[in-house]
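Repro:
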Amino acid sequence: MYSAVFATALTGLAVVHAAPPINGVITPGVTGKLGNAAIVEGNPVGVTYTAVLPNSPTTGVRGYVAGTSNANGTGVNFNVNFYGFPDASLGPFWMDTYTLLTPVYHIHDQPVPANGNCTATLAHQDPYIRGEIPPCDPTQPETCQVGDLAGKHGNITTNPFQTTYLDLYLSTAQGPGSFFGNRSIVVHTSNTTRLTCANFTLTSGNSTSPNGTAPAGNGTVTGSQPVPSPFTGGAAATFVSAGAVIAGLAAFLL
């Protein structure tokens, strides 16, 4: 999942570059300090939270992430759509001749402030205190950070990029640590460079009480789950525009 091989033409020769696993080698069985993530049941039916990337002058990356309660109340169905990355011949992000910066995306712990500073979103949503290292094992999603969507379901591998999937460990009901409606989505490269970000907002249904067409559940879980707590740590966070990435690449090639 994390390793991706791309070919690009450079001075008339086809050169193949391989991206190493993000933040190291996957170690099966590593989980959070509070245990594995619990499957969320009883999500309020018909509730959708959507994060729409801004029309920022500093990057061409656009798109949205929408999460809708599963019809049976267990987990959340996600619809992911991104576009506007640099030309595919760039890799899409080359840090140098041998290092590919794979685009990834995650739910972050804090919302984006009014000034749009993606660094202020802090680290990934992680109520079980797993941390980002070693990388998530996608064959054991319950051991991953709750907000590590790319780790559990795959990195951004095409431009445009579109995918749908069911995540069993997130909630559309306010209260538990798995609730993502008051958080943000951040798109960045595999070296943690943040490209763009957006807040989730309620776009359908009611996450706190039932209504005529969408009876609300209580977001219960099949195991113990921590409630939200103040953020106390985080990963390195660097924000840069896609234009800066391209400029750096151009300087390297000249």
